[in-house]
Specification:
By secondary structure, the chain is an alpha/beta fold. The chain folds into 2 domains: about 180 residues, Periplasmic binding protein-like II (D-Maltodextrin-Binding Protein, domain 2, 3-Layer(aba) Sandwich); about 220 residues, 3-Layer(aba) Sandwich (D-Maltodextrin-Binding Protein, domain 2). It is about 40% helix and about 10% strand. The protein contains 17 helices and 8 strands. The strands form 2 sheets. A 5-stranded mixed beta sheet has the order 2-1-3-8-4. It has a 3-stranded antiparallel beta sheet with strand order 6-5-7. Helix 1 links the parallel strand 1 and strand 2. Helix 8 crosses helix 9. The longest helix has 21 residues. The radius of gyration is 21 Å and the shape is globular.
Length: about 450
């Protein structure tokens, strides 16, 4: 991740913003206790309320606590709220929380700010954890510029295209093994209204740097665009950025879901599950829900790599990972929790108790050797693993860039910049302004950020 800081200013305060996987589980907020000073036999964990985390919370007392005697006090919040709370607690080094869920976007930034414990010494002592089993892209993404490891993945993901095999077959259509975006647009037109109430494709339109900007930025990359060139010149009004954004906005307006400007990951997942869309481009993590027992579309979905135009691959790289606050007085117990939650045995526990399709995968090589997992996740396991392996956070486009990141720019300012740009893009999706107008305003925002780096 070394390129991240070559021209980075020293002021690195993270601004909270909307994240990648917002899920409809707000009722779980605060479930399982809230933060407070933890004692030697307990730790406080602040985490996002997506389904794999909620399952973890349910399994902790009867397994981790029973085996170790360490009580875990969970604070579970929606993603927007949890990012805000984590950034405040870790920036102040208040020590209220020992462990928090952080992504590969925040961890290198937090590490540079001195907010996290390095995990190298724990990894060396805990040989059963087997760091070498963790997929290399995940370890690299959670290693800071000082060469030290600061996070362990709970699950990893890339992005791919999901489609209804049965609908395509009935319409006499074939999904290419490696589709281009133009092929996706052509197919979306043909499967639109293939069934009553079904749209051709679901693409995020909800504002947020980790909502609409995540898939859109992968489209920009493969169309030849970038947020900044290698010298920090903003590129949002470039021909390539405009072409990609127009393509995305036109596709979702013509053949996308109803209410696209307010649709994020959760809404598209619901649409796909309920048979309201024939295709969905999004996180590989969505497949576990689509293939879960009880899903109305289980066995009906096909999975192919993220569509491309000018690049070999275009899938993103993301992980929800665990980080230990530097101010924690319970770092040893915090590591024991992380070792359990990101360990091989935990995946087996989830498989046996909840279902193998629900295993928090995308992080360990050994997961893909488990017969039960391979059977239940057969439809998407290999495509997911290949997508993660082919992700190129240092080089996701056709030109050099000044900071790593595929679906984000790996700088602290991106939470604010990405969110403001996303609001302009979402307004274009809603039909309230043109793409040119949205990108003209966005270019000015990006120029202000780029100038800070040019002057540093």
């Amino acid at each position: 991740m070394g390129t991240q800081s070559r021209r980075a200013p020293r002021t690195l305060l993270l601004v909270a913003a909307v994240g990648t996987l917002i899920t409809p589980l707000a009722a779980c907020a605060g479930a399982g206790g809230s933060g407070g000073s933890s004692d030697g036999d307990s730790i406080n964990v602040l985490m996002v309320n997506n389904p794999p985390m909620v399952e973890l919370q349910k399994l902790t007392a009867a397994n981790f606590t029973k085996d170790t005697g360490i009580k875990v006090n969970f604070t579970v919040l929606p993603e927007n709220d949890v990012r805000d709370k984590i950034s405040q607690d870790f920036a102040n080094q208040a020590g209220q929380y020992d462990v928090a869920t952080l992504s590969n976007y925040e961890i290198p930034i937090y590490a540079r700010n001195g907010w996290l414990h390095s995990l190298d010494s724990y990894v060396r002592k805990d040989t059963a954890f087997d760091q070498d089993d963790v997929l290399t892209p995940m370890t690299q993404a959670l290693t800071a510029e000082d060469g030290k490891l600061y996070g362990e993945p709970f699950y990893g993901e890339s992005s791919f295209l999901m489609y209804r095999k049965d609908v395509f077959e009935k319409a006499g259509l074939t999904m290419p093994d490696k589709p281009t975006w133009q092929q996706v647009a052509d197919l979306a037109a043909k499967v639109d209204k293939a069934e009553s109430g079904m749209k051709g494709v679901c693409l995020r339109g909800l504002p947020g740097w980790g909502e609409v900007m995540a898939p859109l930025t992968t489209v920009v990359n493969t169309f030849g665009g970038t947020w900044f060139d290698k010298d920090w010149n903003a590129q949002l009004d470039s021909k390539e950025f405009k072409e990609a954004t127009r393509f995305y906005v036109d596709l979702v307006r013509k053949h996308g879901e109803a209410g696209a400007a307010q649709s994020g990951y959760a809404e598209c997942l619901n649409n796909m599950t309920q048979g309201k869309t024939a295709m969905w481009y999004d996180a590989t993590a969505g497949a576990g829900s689509l293939e879960a027992s009880g899903s109305p579309v289980k066995g009906k979905i096909g999975y192919v790599p993220a569509p491309v135009e000018r690049t070999e691959s275009s899938g993103w790289l993301y992980t929800w990972a665990w980080g230990i606050q530097k101010a924690s007085k319970n770092a040893e117990n915090a590591w024991k929790f992380i070792s359990w939650a990101s360990g091989k045995d935990y995946e087996k526990l989830v498989g046996e108790k909840i279902g193998w399709a629900n295993v928090p995968a995308g992080k360990r090589t050994s997961t893909y050797d488990i017969p039960e997992y391979r059977k239940d996740a057969a439809a998407f396991a290999d495509v997911t693993r290949d997508a993660i392996a082919s992700a190129k956070p240092e080089d996701p486009g056709v030109q050099a860039r000044p900071a790593p990141g595929i679906q984000f720019v790996g700088i602290p300012e991106f939470t604010d910049l990405g969110t403001k740009v996303s609001q302009e893009i979402s307004a274009a999706i809603a039909g309230r302004q043109s793409v040119d107008s949205a990108l003209s305003k966005s270019q000015k925002l990006a120029e202000a950020v780029g100038k800070k780096y040019q002057q540093s």
